[in-house]
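Structure request: Lipoprotein, Desulfofervidus auxilii.
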Amino acid sequence: MRNLKKRKRHLLYGIIIFNLLIFGCAYLPCYLDKKEMARVKKVAIFPFRNLTQNPHAREIVTQIFLAELGKSERFKVEELGNIIDFMVEQRLRIGTSLDRPRLRVLRKRYKIDAVILGSILDFGERGGVPYVNLTARMVTTDTGKIIWKACIERNGDDYIKILDIGKIRSLNQLASIVVEELINSMG
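Returned structure:
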């Protein structure tokens, strides 16, 4: 009897761990400071850092993020051209973290409350199925504190409902859906 209870408990723990691993990798691990996020009115999106073999991933993901965030109307979004000019002036590389003095310059010059920085970990196809893996974070320009961060990993098969209905076949379409999910995780 005792052995049976022990087996059931081990099975339950195994199921819990399995679900955490499976759903933890597919869903958005996220941090959100709702109080600080409520104060953010205007953001700047810096070009995403491309850690993939796809040379176009940075431009595609950054432009999709700009478009989707603008469409969501959550925040005013600073023009990407101004951000690139700022990066050139400050001699910042894409993917470089911003220190407090530079954050303050952004705040003063463009009235930006927070910046969004991100990395593209994977952007391509696996077995003929589009695959995207992104991380992103939002940092306040006054304190340099991270107030939101999330990562997401999806492939085109994740959206199949039944008999291949809902399957995403285009990498750009998958990127748009993934970015929309990231933006929705902002609260």
